[in-house]
Structure to design on (712 residues):
């Protein structure tokens, strides 16, 4: 018999065990409150990618979760209809399609409330992304990508085929931007399609008979059918509410349906006041006529995340101010009368950034989340008084779902000692501990402990950090320190991360420090202002203060340390490399190196230019804060990591950094991913990422011989 002491106590000792942990995302609550559904990602049989399936969770927490769907392409984005049917998106093949059918894109499927096989509701050559339903009707709206000038699924498929057969991949741009994160924009753009209901049998169809959209139209609009009678007794019409979609339809996946299905509120990205700049506004679309009007806009404002009140008389959304050379952004909740467009600030005195607004069941209040001091709690604001209460004291909450009878709020909860799990909250309790519901993905034991620690910055400001300590760390066995720097920079270490998981490092004996320096959100506007426009200033000194405080602990080894970061964290890693030699090694992922070059090549140049200015007319901040200016001062071994599909921080940043290191003779390595983006998403590449980081740190921090990962 094997000794239990020899069995692994946690899944962090080996990367295959870590990758096998189920990962939850998304949450849907049935109208009667009896069913709670989430999407669970697990490895496919070949262990080459994650497959997502829908699981049902007992809202009472008494019964084990059960799997609802099973297909090789997987299922995601669950949402219930008022009648209790479960809608979801999946690229599973249509069983009624012919043998010569093209490989399917994600379509809209429905799982009957009484059980049985799922059936296809809607498919499009460009796939289906966002799905929303009306509270009190069977209306459904989806977003799909369609080529410019096409009218329906058939003509879109013909356009795609024509480009393919002609060997055309070129894109013609007439405005900015041209890319987003990891993909090119165009030639297909997001369209909003409206279905008056779910067809009783078979998929919804494009109408063959059109009508005018208004009394003044001279010709019928072929994208809109008159009624179900035009299409057949059991058919459901498909209405393209955005037939002229283009660059201005970006952001359109953020939408909500009114309770009766008569109106859609959607976020739309439009040109800003300055050439090349962008802003978002909320538009209101009449689902019967397609008539559109602006509901909320501002020259230097963004409006997004709209949600209708239960009776449809109000819309809540987030209003964000644009950043400027002098001021960081700010945001609040904005309450709007959809008939008049009049709005008011619902959280004017809240020194946090609220988001994800979700109405209470009776419309008297709005639940929301906001980062606060290393957590991301659930709050509620009263519509009449504006009084704000906090329902949870710790953890990171998302995907809020409110029971129709007002008895509970459900959410996904994560923390740095727990991945996302479904939970139940009492709407009447303050700073409560959530009730965790039974589901896949629970981790029974961690290879260490989590602590909250503080340090004092040069100006007296308190810098808060999470500290992960490995098992066995103590005065007699101090652990080497890894400083991990978050991205953003307007972010916080406040939730579980699969990409940057400190427990994998703790399982290998490292202590991991996760500080929130200046520019981190959740500590108020003044804390962000401390680092605004001078990334290499206060954020750097805050990080060093946090590191100094950690190294004073008897359970931390002062003689062995490294620094790591990705995106903005990678920028800071580069800045640290050029301004101190205190660390034994530095790992920099998807990092900014040459700020001037980055500012014009990134997918959102206008965003960064607001803070740093035009590099041709105001080069001061670029010159003062660009790490490449100090390349001659690097003495620390560096591991550079970058993906070629990263359009937020283009590959040129990594290539320039790598060349600058090599020509100066700095000990360094370059881990390059030709087909990964800003993150590293596939299981195999994620494992190689960690293996390379482990080996590099072991060489320089633990003083072990370099061991090249087997598959590299």
């Amino acid at each position: 018999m094997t000794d239990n002491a020899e069995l692994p106590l946690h899944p962090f000792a080996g990367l295959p065990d870590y990758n096998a942990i189920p990962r939850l995302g998304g949450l849907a609550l049935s109208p009667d409150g009896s069913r709670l559904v989430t999407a669970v990602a697990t490895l496919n049989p070949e262990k080459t990618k994650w497959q997502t399936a829908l699981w049902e969770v007992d809202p009472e927490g008494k019964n084990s979760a059960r799997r609802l769907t099973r297909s090789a392409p997987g299922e995601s984005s669950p949402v219930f209809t008022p009648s209790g049917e479960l809608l979801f998106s999946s690229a599973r093949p249509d069983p009624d399609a012919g043998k010569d059918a093209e490989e399917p894109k994600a379509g809209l499927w429905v799982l009957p409330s009484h059980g049985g096989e799922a059936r296809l509701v809607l498919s499009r050559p460009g796939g289906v992304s966002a799905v929303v339903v009306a509270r009190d009707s069977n209306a459904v709206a989806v977003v799909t990508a369609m080529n410019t000038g096409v009218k329906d699924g058939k003509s879109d498929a013909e356009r795609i085929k024509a480009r393919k057969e002609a060997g055309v991949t070129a894109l013609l741009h007439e405005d900015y931007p041209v890319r987003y994160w990891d993909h090119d924009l165009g030639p297909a753009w997001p369209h909003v399609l409206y279905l008056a209901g779910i067809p009783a049998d078979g998929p919804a169809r494009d109408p063959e008979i059109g009508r005018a959209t208004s009394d003044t139209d001279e010709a019928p609009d072929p994208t809109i059918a008159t009624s179900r009678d035009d299409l057949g007794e059991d058919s459901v019409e498909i209405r393209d509410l955005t037939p002229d979609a283009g660059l201005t339809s970006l952001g359109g996946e953020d939408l909500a349906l009114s309770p009766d299905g008569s109106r859609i509120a959607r976020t739309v990205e439009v040109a800003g006041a300055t050439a090349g700049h962008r802003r978002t506004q909320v538009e209101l679309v009449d689902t019967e006529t397609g008539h559109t009007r602006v509901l909320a806009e501002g020259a230097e404002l963004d409006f997004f995340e709209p949600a209708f009140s239960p009776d449809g008389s109000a819309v809540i959304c987030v209003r964000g101010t644009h950043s400027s050379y002098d001021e960081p952004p700010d945001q609040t909740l904005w309450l709007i009368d959809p008939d008049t467009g009049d709005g008011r600030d619902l959280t004017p005195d809240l020194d946090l950034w609220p988001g994800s607004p979700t109405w209470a069941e009776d419309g008297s209040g709005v639940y929301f989340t906001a980062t606060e001091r290393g957590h991301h709690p659930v709050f509620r604001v009263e519509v009449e008084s504006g009084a704000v209460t906090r329902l949870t004291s710790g953890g990171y909450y998302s995907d809020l779902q409110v029971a129709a009878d007002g008895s509970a709020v459900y959410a996904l909860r994560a923390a740095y000692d727990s991945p996302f799990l479904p939970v139940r909250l009492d709407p009447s309790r303050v700073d409560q501990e959530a009730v965790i519901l039974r589901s896949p993905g629970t981790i029974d034991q961690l290879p260490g402990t989590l602590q909250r620690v503080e340090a004092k910055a040069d100006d007296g400001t308190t810098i808060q950090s999470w500290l992960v300590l490995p098992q066995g760390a103590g005065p007699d066995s101090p652990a080497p320190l890894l400083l991990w720097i978050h991205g953003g920079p307007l972010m916080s270490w406040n939730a579980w991360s699969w990409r940057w998981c400190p427990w994998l490092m703790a399982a290998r004996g490292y202590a991991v420090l996760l500080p929130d320096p200046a520019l981190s959100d959740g500590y108020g506007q003044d804390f962000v202002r401390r680092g605004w426009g001078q990334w290499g200033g206060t954020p750097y000194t805050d990080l060093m203060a946090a590191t100094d405080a950690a190294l004073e602990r008897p359970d931390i080894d002062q003689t062995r340390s490294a620094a790591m970061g990705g995106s903005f964290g990678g920028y800071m890693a580069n800045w640290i490399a050029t301004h101190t030699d205190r660390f034994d090694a530095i790992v920099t992922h998807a990092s900014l190196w040459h700020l001037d070059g980055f500012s014009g090549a990134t997918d959102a140049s206008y965003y960064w230019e607001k803070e740093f200015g035009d590099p041709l007319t105001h080069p001061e901040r670029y010159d003062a804060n660009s790490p490449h200016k100090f390349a001659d001062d690097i003495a620390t071994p560096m591991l550079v990591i970058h993906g070629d599909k990263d359009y937020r921080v283009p590959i040129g940043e990594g290539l320039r950094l790598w060349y600058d290191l090599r020509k100066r003779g700095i000990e360094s390595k370059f881990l390059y991913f030709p087909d990964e983006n800003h993150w590293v998403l596939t299981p195999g590449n994620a494992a190689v990422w960690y293996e390379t980081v482990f080996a590099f740190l072991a060489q320089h921090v633990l003083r072990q011989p370099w061991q090249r990962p087997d598959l590299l």
User: Anything to note?
Assistant: The chain has a mean pLDDT of 93.
